[in-house]
Amino acid sequence: xxxxxxxxxxxxxxxxxxxxxxxxxxxxxxxxxxxxxxxxxxxxxxxxxxxxxxxxxxxxxxxxxxxxxxxxxxxxxxxxxxxxxxxxxxxxxxxxxxxxxxxxxxxxxxxxxxx
Length: 115
What we know:
About 0% of the residues lie in helices and about 55% in strands.
């Protein structure tokens, strides 16, 4: 299983970023995918989850209405569109899936929201 995130960077408050996670090594379309974030000194926390076919999504209260998770099963890729970014969104963002009884993580991509 391999998960590779991209798309992070430095953005001003109110700006937008789109994160991507390219997956390989498993049948992507069979599994739910999630995005987590971890800020300095804090525990990793769930941001959003999308079902295997993309019909169902769930979001943390802190990002609801601002972030959108989506997936393209033909490209084995999951996305996180982040709008109206706030300084408190600053964190490393990780792609995640749970299969065969294990959690799998990407290497993470840094998102910094600062003026």
